[in-house]
Amino acid sequence: MNEFNLIEKYFNWTRLDLTAVGIGDDCALISIQPEQQLAMSVDTLIEGVHFPINTSPADIAHKALSVNLSDLAAMGATPKYFTLALTLPEYNQVWLEAFSASLKTLANRYKIDLIGGDTTKGKLSITINVTGVVPSNKALLRSSAKVGDTIFVSNTLGDAALAWRQIQQNIKPSQNLLKQFNAPEPQVALGQSLIGLANACIDISDGLEQDLGHLLNRSQVGAKINLTDIPLAEEVASYLKETNDWCLPLAGGDDYQLCFTVAQDKVSEVKALEKELGIELNSIGVITKDIGLEYSKKLDQTCSSYQHF
Known about the structure:
The protein is of the alpha+beta class and 309 residues long. The chain has helices at residues 3-10, 57-75, 93-109, 159-168, 175-182, 188-193, 208-219, 234-243, 247-251, 267-277; strands at 19-21, 29-30, 36-46, 78-88, 113-121, 125-135, 150-154, 200-203, 222-225, 258-262, 281-288, 292-295.
């Protein structure tokens, strides 16, 4: 099967509202609404680096799109369309059918349109470039945290990192941990709801310590984090009780959650939002004027968050 037939069979889906011309021409044509800004991000996943070699094609597709949707969520953007660059070692119909079906399912869930891309032969890797829209000058940024803000994170931390650690130790993770590792759910609805509520926001997929540090640097502020307030799933809490390894939830990575800061007089709105969206939103600390990140107690080890190089 040649490249054009492969694209037509597996990835030429029905276009959504903004796409004037999609797959089939040299470029896609997008109709942009007035009073909106585009939010764009790109991520690459490589076999053996970002997912284990035996990962199912359905999970690979889900994660590849989710990691990009999480970046849009961090800006408060509404997903609109994406491009896909797929490098395959060989043509495999069964693999492609499962990959395509999973990718389409998640795309439909978040109403994001696949509008083009590229295929080539080589080591398995997936690059997705996403574009969303956000009201002009309303996007959530890393640079707007204010002294006195309460710091929140969504859901629990360390689940995916514990799953990956167990996989490396030839221990089969629970279904819950595997789901967090292989098929994370981006917090798109939360990000959109934080517009006008949060002062600053960031996706913490490279680890809370590192990514919160980026937010602090951009905002030129500091933070004090209460370790006992870090939200943990039962399995991660048990692991910490046995090992005291705080680096796993603080720096393990692969948590496609949001960390955001909110002024004190708006904290009650966050709790209302928690009920409305049906997710956990936990306060873990406060923004301070002293530059740097401080924990409520001294850690026994120095944590190393995920590094791309």
